[in-house]
Structures are given as structure tokens and as C-alpha cells.
Amino acid sequence: MMIISVENGMTIIIYDTVPATRFWIPVICVLLLSTIVASVILFQKLVQYNEESRKRAMLENQVQQMQKEIVEIQDIYADMRGLRHDMRSHLANISLLVKNVTGFMNEELESYLGKMEETVSKLDFIYQTGNPITDMILHQKGQEAEKRHIQFKVDFACPPNLLN
Q1: Residue 6: what are its φ and ψ, rounded to 5°?
Q2: What is the DSSP code string of 90-138?
Q3: How far is residue 162's CA from residue 137's CA, in Å, rounded to a whole number?
Q4: Which pLDDT score, from 0 to 100, does residue 1 have?
């Protein structure tokens, strides 16, 4: 309808009557097409940004959860050290008490106390890096290797700035 008009029963092409339309119609079409392309690109960027924001939020939640778990593990680690110390002290006190009361150590009781000491020793972390998380990981991997009869040797240094 824009390109053709009818006047006095004759079909007239608008380009012939208004020569500026040869320039403006293609320019307007290109501008409209550019607007559509820009809108599509903007929408894609918006979707990508929302996806990245969602991933970032998930990672932040995971980091917060890991930090909570690290604090819990450090508390457990401190409790385990106290428990090992207390158990060794109790075992030594029992041995002394039995020796003082009876004057000698019963072989059966000595064997029992020895087994308890072995059990308490299993709770010791052989590798002590100063970082409880690292100590627990090394301890766990050492136990796995021991169960599979694999020699486990560690040469590990934890950087001091990671200790807190």
C-alpha cells in the first residue's frame, strides 16, 4: 500500500512521486531489522547473565556450607585430641591403680589395657600438618591405603597462611 497508490484510476508508484522514499523506506527497514537483532542479542545476554548469577549464588551457598563443615570438623578434631589424651590418662591411672592395689599386673588385664591403648592409638593422626582438615584427609587416605595393603608415604607441607 505504501509503494503503490491509485489516483484518478491510474496506478502510481510512490517512488516516482516522492523520490525521498527510495532512501527512507530501506533506511527504516534496516533500522527496524537492527532493532530486532539488538533485542535478540540483549535477550541472550540477559539469559546468560541470569544463568551466571544463579551459578554464582549456588557456589556461594556451597562455600558457606563448606565453611560451616570445616568449623564442625575443627571442633571434632579438638574434641578427639582431648578424648585421646583423657583415654591415655585413664588407662595409665587404671594400670597404676591395679599395680598399687594388687602389687602386680594381671596378664589378662595387661592384655586388655594394651588392646585399649591400640584402639586409642588408631584415633591418632600420624600426619600432623597443623591444619585439621588436611590431617583428617591424610589420615583417611592412609587408612584406605592400609586396608588395601598399599604403602602410603606422605611428604606434605601446609602453607602457614592456610592454617586459619
Answers
A1: -115, 120
A2: HHHHHHHHHHHHHSS--HHHHHHHHHHHHHHHHTS-S---S-HHHHHHH
A3: 15
A4: 44
Q: State pTM to two decimals.
A: 0.52
- Residues 12-42: pLDDT tens digits? 777 777 778 778 888 999 999 999 999 999 9
Asked if 96 and 129 count as a contact pair (C-beta separation under 8 A), the reply is no
Is the per-residue pLDDT at 128 higher than 90? no
Rounded Cα distance between 159 and 153, Å, is 19
**What is the pLDDT at residue 164?**
53
CA distance 126 to 87: 18
Quick count: other Cβ atoms within 10 Å of Cβ 138? 20
Gap between the Cα atoms of 142 and 148, Å rounded: 10
Burial class of residue 137 (count of CB atoms within 10 Å of its CB; 0-12, 13-18, 19+): middle
